Amino acid sequence: DAGVIQSPRHEVTEMGQEVTLRCKPISGHNSLFWYRQTMMRGLELLIYFNNNVPIDDSGMPEDRFSAKMPNASFSTLKIQPSEPRDSAVYFCATQDTSLTGELFFGEGSRLTVL
Amino acid sequence: GNSVTQMEGPVTLSEEAFLTINCTYTATGYPSLFWYVQYPGEGLQLLLKATKADDKGSNKGFEATYRKETTSFHLEKGSVQVSDSAVYFCALNSNTGNQFYFGTGTSLTVIP
Fold first, then answer.
1. DSSP secondary structure string, chain A?
2. What pLDDT sits at residue B98?
């Protein structure tokens, strides 16, 4: 299996632009998590889905952030409009809840907002 | 509530030194416990896990034992290598509501 696939790996954009980050989970994994990692705040859970349904979005910073999971093989995290303080590495992680429960992380999308 | 507290870093060790990174947790119910490792520029990778009390997880020379009486899951390695330089995260899964809780991470640098 190719693992969790995220794109783009790196994105540089200007303040005010829309950013879309993408995630393809491991086939058969039924839970998907979006995390943000910064030096100041560490690893923060933004939102997670179970069977494509958002379960907990309390970590989403504000209305500028939105996430969707239209089917079991794809999820997006969108920031509109982007701000410099959104600069971070965004990780997608997936899980097969019928097994031992560990998360499998993608390699992350490094976002820089100028 | 649920939470994980791990040793503050950074930690710097000489090659072949003994490593301990402390992790304690607070949880309701019977969580599963994990150690993840993050190498520079990469995502987190599972290093080892334990799903019930007294279980010992082990991988690549690292070990951690699930101690319910002390609510701890300390990571140990007898002889570290330069290639072990990374950030280590302790985590728990509450197993109720499928909530994961991560520690703040401990940066380890091993010098030759």
1. ----EEE-SEEEE-TT--EEEEEEPPTT--EEEEEEEETTTEEEEEEEEETTEEEE-TT--STTEEEEEEETTEEEEEESS--GGG-EEEEEEEE-TTTT---EE---EEEEE-
2. 73
